[in-house]
Sequence to fold (568 residues):
Amino acid sequence: MQRYGMRSPAWAGLCLLISCAATGAAAQLVINEFLADPEGSDGGREFVELLNTSAVPVDLGGWQLQFANGAEGPVWQTRWSGVPGHSLDTGARFLIVDRNWAGVTTGDVEVALALQNGPDAIRLVHAGQPADVVGYGPLTDGALMETAPAPLAAGRATARRPDGRDSGNNAADFVTAAPTPGAPNFERLLLAATEIVVEPPSAPWPGEMVSVEVTLRNDGLEALPLSRVRLEREGEGVEAMLDAMAPGDTRRLVFALRPVAPGLRPFEVRCRLSTVGDSLRVLLGGFQVGPAELCLNEVLGAPRDGQGEWVELEAGTHGAVDLGGYRLRDADGGWVRLPPLTVSAGGLALVAQDSSALAAWLAGNASGPEQSRGCDAVPMRLSGWPSLNNSAPDGRAYADRVLLADSTGAVIDHVTLPEAAAEAAGRSLERVASSAGSVAWVSSLAAAGSTPGCRNSVSAPLDAPPPGVELSAIPTAVDRAAGAAAVHLRFMVPGDATGWDLAVFDLDGRRVRDLGGDRAGAGLREILWDLRDDRGRAVTAGGYVAVLRLAAVVGQGWAPSRLLLAVR
Fold:
Protein backbone atom coordinates (compact mmCIF):
# COMPACT_ATOMS: atom_id res chain seq x y z
CA MET A 1 0.00 0.00 0.00
CA GLN A 2 1.31 3.46 -0.92
CA ARG A 3 0.96 5.96 1.92
CA TYR A 4 0.99 9.73 1.72
CA GLY A 5 2.53 10.95 4.95
CA MET A 6 2.51 14.26 6.70
CA ARG A 7 4.16 17.17 4.87
CA SER A 8 6.24 19.05 7.41
CA PRO A 9 5.27 21.37 9.06
CA ALA A 10 1.64 20.13 9.03
CA TRP A 11 1.82 18.71 12.62
CA ALA A 12 2.01 22.29 13.93
CA GLY A 13 -1.65 22.90 13.14
CA LEU A 14 -3.06 19.38 13.69
CA CYS A 15 -4.57 19.93 17.14
CA LEU A 16 -6.44 23.02 15.92
CA LEU A 17 -7.40 21.25 12.72
CA ILE A 18 -9.08 18.29 14.44
CA SER A 19 -10.97 20.30 17.07
CA CYS A 20 -12.38 22.71 14.48
CA ALA A 21 -13.32 19.97 12.04
CA ALA A 22 -15.48 18.35 14.71
CA THR A 23 -17.91 21.30 14.59
CA GLY A 24 -18.73 20.82 10.91
CA ALA A 25 -19.31 17.99 8.47
CA ALA A 26 -18.04 14.52 9.22
CA ALA A 27 -16.12 14.08 5.96
CA GLN A 28 -12.74 12.40 6.36
CA LEU A 29 -11.25 14.46 3.54
CA VAL A 30 -11.92 18.13 2.87
CA ILE A 31 -10.91 20.57 0.18
CA ASN A 32 -8.49 22.62 2.27
CA GLU A 33 -7.08 25.11 -0.26
CA PHE A 34 -7.26 25.76 -3.99
CA LEU A 35 -6.05 28.26 -6.57
CA ALA A 36 -8.57 28.84 -9.35
CA ASP A 37 -7.33 32.18 -10.72
CA PRO A 38 -3.51 32.30 -10.67
CA GLU A 39 -1.60 35.42 -11.59
CA GLY A 40 -0.92 35.32 -15.32
CA SER A 41 -1.77 32.20 -17.29
CA ASP A 42 -3.83 29.58 -15.42
CA GLY A 43 -2.16 26.64 -17.12
CA GLY A 44 0.28 24.77 -14.89
CA ARG A 45 -0.52 26.96 -11.85
CA GLU A 46 -3.92 25.77 -10.58
CA PHE A 47 -4.02 23.35 -7.66
CA VAL A 48 -6.39 21.75 -5.15
CA GLU A 49 -5.13 20.61 -1.75
CA LEU A 50 -7.00 17.88 0.15
CA LEU A 51 -6.59 17.33 3.89
CA ASN A 52 -7.30 14.28 6.04
CA THR A 53 -9.10 15.68 9.10
CA SER A 54 -9.89 12.30 10.63
CA ALA A 55 -7.94 10.46 13.32
CA VAL A 56 -7.15 7.50 11.04
CA PRO A 57 -5.49 7.04 7.62
CA VAL A 58 -7.86 7.24 4.65
CA ASP A 59 -7.71 5.01 1.58
CA LEU A 60 -8.06 7.27 -1.50
CA GLY A 61 -9.86 4.59 -3.48
CA GLY A 62 -13.44 5.66 -4.19
CA TRP A 63 -12.71 9.38 -3.76
CA GLN A 64 -13.16 11.84 -6.65
CA LEU A 65 -12.62 15.55 -7.22
CA GLN A 66 -15.30 17.09 -9.45
CA PHE A 67 -15.86 20.50 -11.05
CA ALA A 68 -19.06 22.33 -12.04
CA ASN A 69 -19.39 25.40 -14.26
CA GLY A 70 -21.54 27.94 -12.44
CA ALA A 71 -23.22 28.95 -15.70
CA GLU A 72 -24.46 25.38 -16.24
CA GLY A 73 -25.56 24.50 -12.71
CA PRO A 74 -24.81 21.22 -10.89
CA VAL A 75 -23.40 19.36 -13.88
CA TRP A 76 -20.35 17.73 -12.34
CA GLN A 77 -17.23 16.72 -14.29
CA THR A 78 -14.67 14.42 -12.69
CA ARG A 79 -11.15 15.85 -12.62
CA TRP A 80 -9.41 13.24 -10.40
CA SER A 81 -10.13 9.76 -9.07
CA GLY A 82 -8.21 8.23 -6.18
CA VAL A 83 -6.30 4.99 -6.59
CA PRO A 84 -7.33 2.12 -4.28
CA GLY A 85 -4.54 1.12 -1.93
CA HIS A 86 -3.08 4.64 -1.77
CA SER A 87 -3.47 5.83 1.80
CA LEU A 88 -3.40 9.38 3.23
CA ASP A 89 -2.17 9.62 6.83
CA THR A 90 -4.09 11.51 9.48
CA GLY A 91 -3.43 15.24 9.20
CA ALA A 92 -1.66 14.78 5.86
CA ARG A 93 -2.19 16.78 2.67
CA PHE A 94 -2.74 15.47 -0.86
CA LEU A 95 -1.87 17.94 -3.63
CA ILE A 96 -3.65 17.74 -6.99
CA VAL A 97 -1.95 20.06 -9.51
CA ASP A 98 -2.58 21.10 -13.10
CA ARG A 99 -0.76 19.57 -16.06
CA ASN A 100 2.77 20.96 -16.60
CA TRP A 101 2.83 22.10 -12.99
CA ALA A 102 5.09 25.17 -12.58
CA GLY A 103 5.00 25.36 -8.79
CA VAL A 104 7.94 24.95 -6.44
CA THR A 105 6.16 22.33 -4.34
CA THR A 106 5.91 18.87 -5.91
CA GLY A 107 2.35 17.72 -6.54
CA ASP A 108 1.11 14.25 -5.63
CA VAL A 109 -0.73 13.91 -8.94
CA GLU A 110 -1.05 15.96 -12.14
CA VAL A 111 -4.41 16.21 -13.91
CA ALA A 112 -6.18 18.64 -16.26
CA LEU A 113 -7.85 20.80 -13.59
CA ALA A 114 -9.37 23.67 -15.67
CA LEU A 115 -11.11 25.17 -12.63
CA GLN A 116 -12.11 28.46 -14.35
CA ASN A 117 -12.27 31.78 -12.52
CA GLY A 118 -15.77 31.72 -11.01
CA PRO A 119 -18.56 31.67 -10.30
CA ASP A 120 -17.92 27.91 -10.24
CA ALA A 121 -17.67 25.02 -7.78
CA ILE A 122 -15.61 21.97 -6.86
CA ARG A 123 -16.54 19.04 -4.67
CA LEU A 124 -15.25 15.80 -3.20
CA VAL A 125 -17.30 12.67 -3.73
CA HIS A 126 -16.81 9.39 -1.83
CA ALA A 127 -18.43 6.18 -3.04
CA GLY A 128 -20.75 8.27 -5.22
CA GLN A 129 -21.92 10.53 -2.37
CA PRO A 130 -20.96 14.24 -1.95
CA ALA A 131 -18.56 14.66 0.98
CA ASP A 132 -17.45 18.31 0.61
CA VAL A 133 -18.68 21.10 -1.69
CA VAL A 134 -17.00 24.48 -2.19
CA GLY A 135 -18.57 27.15 -4.39
CA TYR A 136 -16.55 30.25 -5.19
CA GLY A 137 -17.21 33.61 -6.77
CA PRO A 138 -20.67 35.27 -7.05
CA LEU A 139 -22.71 32.04 -7.05
CA THR A 140 -26.47 31.93 -6.37
CA ASP A 141 -27.18 28.23 -6.96
CA GLY A 142 -27.42 26.52 -3.55
CA ALA A 143 -26.57 23.14 -5.11
CA LEU A 144 -23.05 24.43 -5.84
CA MET A 145 -22.07 25.58 -2.34
CA GLU A 146 -22.46 25.10 1.37
CA THR A 147 -24.66 28.01 2.62
CA ALA A 148 -22.72 30.83 0.88
CA PRO A 149 -19.87 30.92 -1.66
CA ALA A 150 -16.20 31.24 -0.71
CA PRO A 151 -14.33 34.39 -1.75
CA LEU A 152 -12.10 34.53 -4.82
CA ALA A 153 -9.30 36.97 -5.71
CA ALA A 154 -6.93 36.97 -8.68
CA GLY A 155 -3.52 35.59 -7.77
CA ARG A 156 -4.72 34.52 -4.30
CA ALA A 157 -5.62 31.08 -3.04
CA THR A 158 -8.97 30.31 -1.40
CA ALA A 159 -8.02 28.64 1.88
CA ARG A 160 -9.69 27.37 5.04
CA ARG A 161 -8.86 29.35 8.14
CA PRO A 162 -7.75 27.51 10.21
CA ASP A 163 -6.78 24.42 8.22
CA GLY A 164 -9.57 21.85 8.12
CA ARG A 165 -12.32 24.09 9.53
CA ASP A 166 -15.67 22.91 8.12
CA SER A 167 -18.74 24.60 9.62
CA GLY A 168 -20.90 23.94 6.58
CA ASN A 169 -20.59 27.54 5.34
CA ASN A 170 -18.06 28.18 2.56
CA ALA A 171 -18.07 31.93 3.17
CA ALA A 172 -17.28 31.48 6.87
CA ASP A 173 -14.68 28.75 6.43
CA PHE A 174 -12.59 30.19 3.57
CA VAL A 175 -10.57 33.37 3.08
CA THR A 176 -8.27 34.51 0.29
CA ALA A 177 -4.59 34.17 1.15
CA ALA A 178 -1.13 33.73 -0.30
CA PRO A 179 -0.96 30.25 -1.92
CA THR A 180 0.65 27.56 0.27
CA PRO A 181 0.27 24.31 -1.71
CA GLY A 182 1.21 21.29 0.40
CA ALA A 183 1.81 23.37 3.56
CA PRO A 184 -0.38 24.84 6.36
CA ASN A 185 -2.57 27.71 5.20
CA PHE A 186 -1.79 29.81 8.26
CA GLU A 187 0.96 29.72 10.84
CA ARG A 188 0.39 29.85 14.58
CA LEU A 189 2.09 33.26 14.71
CA LEU A 190 2.05 35.34 11.52
CA LEU A 191 2.06 39.02 10.62
CA ALA A 192 1.19 40.32 7.15
CA ALA A 193 1.29 43.77 5.58
CA THR A 194 -2.03 44.64 3.94
CA GLU A 195 -1.12 48.17 2.85
CA ILE A 196 2.21 49.95 2.40
CA VAL A 197 2.55 53.66 1.60
CA VAL A 198 6.09 55.01 1.12
CA GLU A 199 6.60 58.73 0.64
CA PRO A 200 8.52 59.49 -1.47
CA PRO A 201 8.27 56.22 -3.46
CA SER A 202 12.05 56.32 -4.06
CA ALA A 203 14.83 58.48 -2.62
CA PRO A 204 16.83 60.41 -5.24
CA TRP A 205 19.77 60.79 -2.87
CA PRO A 206 20.96 59.26 0.44
CA GLY A 207 19.81 60.92 3.65
CA GLU A 208 16.42 62.08 2.38
CA MET A 209 13.60 61.67 4.92
CA VAL A 210 11.27 58.82 4.02
CA SER A 211 7.89 58.14 5.60
CA VAL A 212 6.74 54.50 5.66
CA GLU A 213 3.12 53.83 6.61
CA VAL A 214 2.36 50.13 7.13
CA THR A 215 -0.93 48.43 7.99
CA LEU A 216 -0.18 45.12 9.70
CA ARG A 217 -2.68 42.29 10.13
CA ASN A 218 -2.44 39.32 12.48
CA ASP A 219 -2.83 36.45 10.02
CA GLY A 220 -1.80 33.89 12.61
CA LEU A 221 -4.04 31.63 14.63
CA GLU A 222 -3.02 33.07 18.01
CA ALA A 223 -3.16 36.52 19.56
CA LEU A 224 0.00 38.64 19.55
CA PRO A 225 1.00 40.50 22.73
CA LEU A 226 2.17 44.09 22.98
CA SER A 227 5.45 44.01 21.05
CA ARG A 228 8.36 46.16 19.93
CA VAL A 229 8.71 46.37 16.16
CA ARG A 230 11.54 47.72 14.03
CA LEU A 231 11.48 48.94 10.44
CA GLU A 232 14.81 48.00 8.86
CA ARG A 233 16.65 48.63 5.61
CA GLU A 234 20.07 46.96 5.55
CA GLY A 235 20.96 47.72 9.17
CA GLU A 236 19.32 51.16 9.22
CA GLY A 237 16.13 51.25 11.23
CA VAL A 238 13.66 52.87 13.60
CA GLU A 239 11.47 51.30 16.29
CA ALA A 240 7.84 51.57 17.37
CA MET A 241 5.43 49.73 19.68
CA LEU A 242 2.75 47.42 18.29
CA ASP A 243 -0.41 47.03 20.37
CA ALA A 244 -1.71 43.55 21.22
CA MET A 245 -3.57 41.99 18.27
CA ALA A 246 -6.19 39.26 18.23
CA PRO A 247 -6.28 37.06 15.11
CA GLY A 248 -7.57 39.13 12.21
CA ASP A 249 -6.87 42.49 13.91
CA THR A 250 -5.06 45.24 12.02
CA ARG A 251 -2.79 48.03 13.25
CA ARG A 252 -1.35 51.03 11.39
CA LEU A 253 2.22 52.15 12.07
CA VAL A 254 4.08 55.16 10.65
CA PHE A 255 7.88 55.25 10.57
CA ALA A 256 10.26 58.08 9.59
CA LEU A 257 13.70 57.02 8.34
CA ARG A 258 16.68 58.59 6.55
CA PRO A 259 18.22 55.70 4.55
CA VAL A 260 21.80 56.28 3.47
CA ALA A 261 22.83 52.97 1.88
CA PRO A 262 22.57 53.46 -1.91
CA GLY A 263 20.91 50.99 -4.22
CA LEU A 264 17.81 48.80 -4.08
CA ARG A 265 17.57 47.26 -0.63
CA PRO A 266 14.64 45.46 1.04
CA PHE A 267 12.46 47.10 3.67
CA GLU A 268 11.17 44.78 6.36
CA VAL A 269 9.37 44.95 9.69
CA ARG A 270 10.70 42.78 12.52
CA CYS A 271 8.50 42.04 15.51
CA ARG A 272 10.32 40.75 18.60
CA LEU A 273 8.19 38.42 20.72
CA SER A 274 9.31 37.15 24.11
CA THR A 275 7.20 34.02 23.60
CA VAL A 276 9.16 32.74 20.59
CA GLY A 277 12.83 32.46 19.83
CA ASP A 278 12.80 34.19 16.46
CA SER A 279 11.34 37.50 15.40
CA LEU A 280 8.35 37.68 13.08
CA ARG A 281 9.42 39.23 9.77
CA VAL A 282 7.25 41.06 7.26
CA LEU A 283 8.97 41.88 3.95
CA LEU A 284 7.73 45.16 2.46
CA GLY A 285 9.62 45.01 -0.84
CA GLY A 286 12.64 46.88 -2.13
CA PHE A 287 13.33 50.61 -1.73
CA GLN A 288 15.68 52.48 -4.04
CA VAL A 289 18.11 55.12 -2.75
CA GLY A 290 20.11 57.11 -5.27
CA PRO A 291 20.21 56.51 -9.03
CA ALA A 292 19.25 53.08 -10.36
CA GLU A 293 20.43 51.33 -13.53
CA LEU A 294 17.53 53.03 -15.35
CA CYS A 295 16.14 56.48 -14.48
CA LEU A 296 13.40 58.86 -15.54
CA ASN A 297 15.11 61.81 -17.23
CA GLU A 298 12.38 64.01 -18.71
CA VAL A 299 8.56 63.96 -18.70
CA LEU A 300 5.98 65.89 -20.71
CA GLY A 301 2.64 65.53 -18.95
CA ALA A 302 0.90 68.63 -20.35
CA PRO A 303 1.54 68.67 -24.11
CA ARG A 304 0.33 71.18 -26.63
CA ASP A 305 -2.42 70.01 -28.95
CA GLY A 306 -1.24 67.17 -31.18
CA GLN A 307 2.09 66.52 -29.43
CA GLY A 308 1.08 63.80 -26.97
CA GLU A 309 2.52 62.87 -23.58
CA TRP A 310 5.93 61.19 -23.39
CA VAL A 311 8.62 60.01 -20.99
CA GLU A 312 12.37 59.98 -21.56
CA LEU A 313 14.46 57.29 -19.84
CA GLU A 314 18.21 57.24 -19.29
CA ALA A 315 20.34 54.13 -18.76
CA GLY A 316 23.02 54.33 -16.08
CA THR A 317 26.72 54.38 -16.81
CA HIS A 318 27.38 50.82 -15.61
CA GLY A 319 26.10 48.96 -18.65
CA ALA A 320 23.38 48.45 -21.24
CA VAL A 321 19.76 48.06 -20.08
CA ASP A 322 16.90 46.10 -21.66
CA LEU A 323 13.72 48.16 -21.22
CA GLY A 324 11.60 45.00 -21.48
CA GLY A 325 12.43 44.17 -17.87
CA TYR A 326 10.85 47.38 -16.50
CA ARG A 327 7.38 48.80 -15.90
CA LEU A 328 5.77 52.23 -15.87
CA ARG A 329 2.62 53.63 -14.29
CA ASP A 330 1.08 56.81 -12.98
CA ALA A 331 -0.33 57.45 -9.50
CA ASP A 332 -3.77 56.04 -10.32
CA GLY A 333 -3.21 53.31 -12.92
CA GLY A 334 -1.72 49.84 -13.16
CA TRP A 335 1.73 48.81 -14.29
CA VAL A 336 2.48 48.79 -18.03
CA ARG A 337 5.46 46.81 -19.30
CA LEU A 338 7.96 48.80 -21.38
CA PRO A 339 8.71 47.61 -24.92
CA PRO A 340 11.87 45.52 -25.41
CA LEU A 341 14.79 47.72 -26.41
CA THR A 342 18.45 47.63 -25.42
CA VAL A 343 19.70 51.06 -24.34
CA SER A 344 23.45 51.51 -24.14
CA ALA A 345 25.10 52.86 -21.00
CA GLY A 346 24.27 56.56 -20.68
CA GLY A 347 21.82 56.34 -23.59
CA LEU A 348 18.31 57.77 -23.84
CA ALA A 349 15.00 56.17 -24.86
CA LEU A 350 11.61 57.76 -25.56
CA VAL A 351 8.25 56.11 -24.86
CA ALA A 352 5.19 58.04 -25.98
CA GLN A 353 1.43 58.14 -25.77
CA ASP A 354 1.39 58.87 -29.51
CA SER A 355 4.70 58.05 -31.17
CA SER A 356 3.58 59.48 -34.53
CA ALA A 357 2.68 62.83 -32.98
CA LEU A 358 5.99 63.03 -31.15
CA ALA A 359 7.90 62.05 -34.31
CA ALA A 360 6.16 64.87 -36.19
CA TRP A 361 7.08 67.31 -33.41
CA LEU A 362 10.70 66.17 -33.53
CA ALA A 363 10.78 66.66 -37.31
CA GLY A 364 9.46 70.18 -36.90
CA ASN A 365 12.15 71.00 -34.34
CA ALA A 366 15.10 69.56 -36.25
CA SER A 367 16.87 72.90 -36.58
CA GLY A 368 18.04 75.54 -34.17
CA PRO A 369 20.02 75.23 -30.93
CA GLU A 370 21.03 71.73 -29.91
CA GLN A 371 18.75 71.71 -26.89
CA SER A 372 15.68 72.38 -29.05
CA ARG A 373 15.94 69.66 -31.68
CA GLY A 374 15.22 65.94 -31.76
CA CYS A 375 18.80 64.62 -31.76
CA ASP A 376 17.76 61.63 -33.92
CA ALA A 377 15.58 60.10 -31.17
CA VAL A 378 13.05 57.47 -32.27
CA PRO A 379 9.95 57.49 -30.02
CA MET A 380 8.25 54.19 -29.22
CA ARG A 381 4.54 53.88 -28.55
CA LEU A 382 3.66 52.46 -25.14
CA SER A 383 0.51 50.36 -25.30
CA GLY A 384 -1.81 51.09 -22.38
CA TRP A 385 -0.33 54.55 -21.80
CA PRO A 386 -0.94 55.87 -18.24
CA SER A 387 -2.69 59.16 -19.11
CA LEU A 388 -1.27 61.87 -16.86
CA ASN A 389 -3.46 64.30 -14.92
CA ASN A 390 -2.86 68.02 -15.28
CA SER A 391 -4.78 69.00 -12.14
CA ALA A 392 -4.79 67.55 -8.65
CA PRO A 393 -7.71 65.26 -7.74
CA ASP A 394 -9.51 65.93 -4.47
CA GLY A 395 -7.39 65.07 -1.46
CA ARG A 396 -4.06 65.12 -3.32
CA ALA A 397 -1.46 67.88 -3.36
CA TYR A 398 -0.07 67.05 -6.80
CA ALA A 399 -1.53 66.35 -10.22
CA ASP A 400 0.08 62.99 -10.90
CA ARG A 401 3.19 60.87 -10.62
CA VAL A 402 5.23 58.80 -13.03
CA LEU A 403 6.71 55.71 -11.37
CA LEU A 404 9.35 53.39 -12.84
CA ALA A 405 9.72 49.86 -11.45
CA ASP A 406 11.86 46.81 -12.12
CA SER A 407 10.46 43.38 -13.01
CA THR A 408 9.57 42.65 -9.35
CA GLY A 409 7.44 45.80 -9.04
CA ALA A 410 9.95 47.63 -6.84
CA VAL A 411 9.88 51.38 -7.59
CA ILE A 412 13.36 52.50 -8.64
CA ASP A 413 12.55 56.08 -9.69
CA HIS A 414 9.67 58.55 -9.75
CA VAL A 415 8.76 62.13 -10.58
CA THR A 416 5.89 64.12 -9.10
CA LEU A 417 3.96 66.31 -11.54
CA PRO A 418 2.56 69.59 -10.19
CA GLU A 419 -0.61 71.14 -11.49
CA ALA A 420 0.06 72.40 -15.02
CA ALA A 421 -0.57 76.09 -15.64
CA ALA A 422 -2.06 76.95 -19.03
CA GLU A 423 1.04 78.90 -20.05
CA ALA A 424 3.24 75.89 -19.28
CA ALA A 425 1.58 73.61 -21.84
CA GLY A 426 4.20 71.94 -24.01
CA ARG A 427 6.98 72.51 -21.45
CA SER A 428 8.52 69.38 -19.93
CA LEU A 429 10.01 68.62 -16.54
CA GLU A 430 13.73 67.82 -16.74
CA ARG A 431 15.90 66.00 -14.24
CA VAL A 432 19.00 67.76 -12.96
CA ALA A 433 21.54 66.23 -10.60
CA SER A 434 24.11 68.27 -8.68
CA SER A 435 27.71 67.30 -7.94
CA ALA A 436 26.63 66.82 -4.31
CA GLY A 437 24.30 64.02 -5.36
CA SER A 438 20.96 65.83 -4.96
CA VAL A 439 18.30 65.62 -7.67
CA ALA A 440 15.64 68.14 -8.66
CA TRP A 441 12.99 68.37 -11.36
CA VAL A 442 12.57 71.75 -13.06
CA SER A 443 10.77 73.13 -16.11
CA SER A 444 12.74 72.89 -19.33
CA LEU A 445 14.64 76.02 -20.31
CA ALA A 446 14.69 75.04 -24.01
CA ALA A 447 13.14 77.44 -26.49
CA ALA A 448 11.04 74.58 -27.92
CA GLY A 449 9.77 73.72 -24.43
CA SER A 450 11.43 70.32 -24.14
CA THR A 451 14.44 68.25 -25.18
CA PRO A 452 13.18 64.73 -26.03
CA GLY A 453 16.12 62.46 -26.85
CA CYS A 454 18.64 65.27 -26.22
CA ARG A 455 20.77 66.45 -23.36
CA ASN A 456 18.53 68.30 -20.88
CA SER A 457 18.48 72.08 -21.15
CA VAL A 458 19.07 72.39 -17.38
CA SER A 459 22.21 70.23 -17.51
CA ALA A 460 25.50 71.87 -16.60
CA PRO A 461 27.66 73.15 -19.50
CA LEU A 462 29.91 70.50 -20.96
CA ASP A 463 32.99 72.72 -20.73
CA ALA A 464 34.56 74.24 -17.63
CA PRO A 465 33.97 77.96 -17.04
CA PRO A 466 36.28 80.14 -19.17
CA PRO A 467 39.58 81.23 -17.53
CA GLY A 468 39.08 84.13 -15.16
CA VAL A 469 35.32 83.48 -14.82
CA GLU A 470 34.70 82.22 -11.30
CA LEU A 471 30.91 82.14 -11.50
CA SER A 472 28.61 81.44 -14.47
CA ALA A 473 24.88 80.81 -14.82
CA ILE A 474 22.39 79.28 -17.27
CA PRO A 475 20.31 81.29 -17.88
CA THR A 476 21.13 84.73 -16.48
CA ALA A 477 17.63 85.97 -17.38
CA VAL A 478 14.75 83.71 -16.35
CA ASP A 479 11.29 84.00 -17.90
CA ARG A 480 8.86 82.14 -15.66
CA ALA A 481 5.95 82.93 -17.96
CA ALA A 482 7.68 80.75 -20.55
CA GLY A 483 7.98 77.91 -18.03
CA ALA A 484 11.58 78.42 -16.87
CA ALA A 485 11.92 77.60 -13.19
CA ALA A 486 15.60 77.47 -12.22
CA VAL A 487 19.09 78.94 -12.62
CA HIS A 488 22.06 76.60 -12.92
CA LEU A 489 25.11 78.17 -11.20
CA ARG A 490 28.57 76.78 -11.86
CA PHE A 491 32.08 77.66 -10.64
CA MET A 492 35.56 76.26 -9.98
CA VAL A 493 37.05 76.16 -6.49
CA PRO A 494 40.83 76.73 -6.79
CA GLY A 495 43.30 74.45 -5.10
CA ASP A 496 44.46 77.03 -2.56
CA ALA A 497 40.92 77.84 -1.35
CA THR A 498 39.82 76.32 1.94
CA GLY A 499 36.11 76.53 1.19
CA TRP A 500 33.26 78.50 -0.36
CA ASP A 501 29.74 79.74 0.19
CA LEU A 502 27.12 80.97 -2.27
CA ALA A 503 24.06 83.16 -1.71
CA VAL A 504 21.54 85.22 -3.68
CA PHE A 505 20.75 88.83 -2.68
CA ASP A 506 18.20 91.35 -3.88
CA LEU A 507 19.32 94.70 -5.26
CA ASP A 508 18.98 96.29 -1.80
CA GLY A 509 21.58 93.88 -0.42
CA ARG A 510 19.20 91.67 1.54
CA ARG A 511 19.96 87.97 1.42
CA VAL A 512 17.21 86.09 -0.37
CA ARG A 513 18.58 82.54 -0.50
CA ASP A 514 21.52 80.75 1.13
CA LEU A 515 22.70 78.14 -1.38
CA GLY A 516 25.19 76.56 1.00
CA GLY A 517 28.89 75.82 0.80
CA ASP A 518 31.50 73.22 1.69
CA ARG A 519 35.11 72.64 2.70
CA ALA A 520 35.64 69.70 0.34
CA GLY A 521 38.64 71.11 -1.53
CA ALA A 522 39.24 72.14 -5.12
CA GLY A 523 37.03 71.26 -8.06
CA LEU A 524 33.91 72.03 -10.00
CA ARG A 525 30.66 72.89 -8.18
CA GLU A 526 27.18 72.91 -9.72
CA ILE A 527 24.36 74.52 -7.73
CA LEU A 528 20.70 74.88 -8.72
CA TRP A 529 18.63 77.89 -7.55
CA ASP A 530 14.91 77.14 -7.91
CA LEU A 531 13.88 80.83 -7.75
CA ARG A 532 12.68 80.50 -4.16
CA ASP A 533 13.77 82.26 -0.98
CA ASP A 534 14.95 80.70 2.28
CA ARG A 535 11.32 80.21 3.36
CA GLY A 536 10.42 78.35 0.18
CA ARG A 537 8.42 81.18 -1.38
CA ALA A 538 8.76 82.10 -5.06
CA VAL A 539 10.77 85.31 -5.44
CA THR A 540 9.18 88.37 -7.04
CA ALA A 541 10.17 89.55 -10.50
CA GLY A 542 13.25 91.75 -10.55
CA GLY A 543 17.01 91.79 -10.36
CA TYR A 544 19.13 89.58 -8.06
CA VAL A 545 22.83 89.12 -7.44
CA ALA A 546 24.51 85.73 -6.92
CA VAL A 547 27.56 86.20 -4.66
CA LEU A 548 30.32 83.59 -4.39
CA ARG A 549 32.81 83.89 -1.55
CA LEU A 550 35.98 81.79 -1.46
CA ALA A 551 37.60 81.13 1.90
CA ALA A 552 41.40 81.28 2.13
CA VAL A 553 44.23 80.56 4.51
CA VAL A 554 45.53 83.41 6.64
CA GLY A 555 47.20 86.11 4.58
CA GLN A 556 45.37 85.30 1.35
CA GLY A 557 41.95 86.18 0.05
CA TRP A 558 39.74 86.74 -2.95
CA ALA A 559 37.19 89.38 -3.69
CA PRO A 560 33.64 87.98 -3.88
CA SER A 561 32.44 86.99 -7.37
CA ARG A 562 29.12 88.60 -8.29
CA LEU A 563 26.71 87.77 -11.10
CA LEU A 564 23.57 89.73 -11.96
CA LEU A 565 20.45 87.63 -12.55
CA ALA A 566 17.09 88.78 -13.88
CA VAL A 567 13.82 87.07 -12.97
CA ARG A 568 10.65 87.84 -14.89
User: Anything to note?
Assistant: Residues 191-289 form a domain with the Immunoglobulin-like fold (CATH 2.60.40.10).
